[in-house]
Amino acid sequence: MATMADVARRAGVSVATVSHVLNGTRPVLPHTRQAVLDAVEELGYTTNTLARSLVTSRTRSIGLAVSAISNPYFTEILQGVEAASLEAGYSLLIADPHDDPEHERKVVQLLHERRVDGMIVAPSADPRELLAYLGRHDVPAVFLDRLVDAPGAAGGPRFDQVCADNAEPMSRLVTHLAGLGHRRIGLVAGRPGLSTTRERITGYRSGLAFAGLAYDGRLLVHGDSESTGAEQATETLLSLGVPPTALVTGNNAMTIGVLRALSAHGLSVPGDIALCCFDDFAWADLFSPRLTAIAQPGKDIGARAVGVLLERLAVPDRPARTVRLSCAFVHRTSCGCPSPSEEGTPS
């Protein structure tokens, strides 16, 4: 196996120059850099990552803890994280916390023991053990999608956070349905305790208020962010003496459960009940009717989280910040509009 010294001899430069070229630690003349790269290619040299990590105390790896298997939205985020990590020269270690607080702390500890340089985590509804572990071990971390109320010394967030807007896009769905004449609009909300659930409920209520509609607590049910829970929650709404004429779902997994429940009752969308959903997904325009939805920029959220983490690693003492990305309103036919536009516009 070729060594750095072999590369230096072939290129006619010092070992230090080879190191500077490969690690980008100092500017090198273009022709010298090319000579080193040519020597690397000819000799088939590969960097000894383990040896470098022993010297630099960095492994150039990022730990990612998201429930990618149970939530298809996180698959899109994962793609963004992976692409941005690879572009920056970092490897990615992935663990699924299954949205369970105890398992979450275990997988984060496992990633930490693998000596990742930092972590990107989509926290559970009860992240107390997670926060305690990250704080105790001073682990550089970025929370994505779900925010954590963990104020720092100056009153701001303790950790960097990256997420999409939630309240305003949800309000837009509600006002859109109200504009179509609906007066009883139900919400199948996500798991209690998640910031996304809280913010989307806030948007739901503000949308009702903007449309001049009174809030009725019976029209808000929790689907626990899962298909089965949403199916049961929809049953609750349909059993009301005066059921809703329109529904809004809090995420893509719950949309499937809602559609299953409506089908079981022989209800058509939008003929019998209108439907809008938070979270667009790849096959949303293949349903009949095609689903009107809020599309979150999952890949951009993932990529931005990597960028924020790398900034944290470069400047460990800078103030933590929260980054929000805009969503898009994708207008299809499940809301009951006669001639919806197919264009997504920023919300």
What is the count of helical runs? 12
- What shape does the CA trace take? elongated
Percent in helix: 40-55%
Strand order of the largest sheet: 7-6-8-9-10-12-13
What does the main sheet amount to? 7 strands, mixed
Secondary structure tally: strands: 13
What is the N-to-C order of secondary-structure elements (H for helix, E for strand)?
Answer: HHHHEHEHEHEEHEHEHEHEEHEEE
| Subunit organisation of the chains | single chain
Distance between the termini: 55 Å
Structural class call reads: alpha/beta
State the low-pLDDT regions, or none: 341-347
| Average residue pLDDT | 89
What percentage of the residues does DSSP assign to strands (E)? 15-25%
Q: Report the C-alpha radius of gyration, rounded.
A: 25 Å
Task: Give a short synopsis of this structure.
This protein has about 350 residues and is an alpha/beta fold. The chain has helices spanning about 5-10, 15-25, 30-45, 50-55, 70-85, 100-115, 130-135, 165-180, 195-210, 225-240, 250-265, 300-315; strands at about 60-65, 90-95, 120, 140-145, 160-165, 185-190, 220, 245-250, 275-280, 290-295, 320-325, 330, 345.
